[in-house]
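# nightly structure sweep
# worker-07 picked up a monomer target from the shared queue
# config: single-sequence mode, recycle default, output format = structure tokens
# input follows
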Amino acid sequence: MSGGGVFEARREMGCTPEDLLRWLPEALGDLYPETSLTLDNQRLLIAEPPRIRMDGTNLKSRKIALLMIPVLELVITFDESFSAGQIESILGRFDLYTRRGGG
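# output follows
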């Protein structure tokens, strides 16, 4: 928790900005219209005022054998209207919809 009751979560994601934009409506559900997203200083989603703010930076891709994996660092900030339980639930859903595994 930082000052004013605002909570911040960080994620390092193996996806492109386009992937993230495609996943967000399902990952956030009813909160999607209340979310702003800025990637590399470019505003891609605008909610005024946002209850959830996402700020991302594209990092250098990682290479594993012949596979190149994009890396996106994302900071998710929740306003003080959310309880700890709500934030945990929102992040749980977000992680479920955005983590991709092989198999």
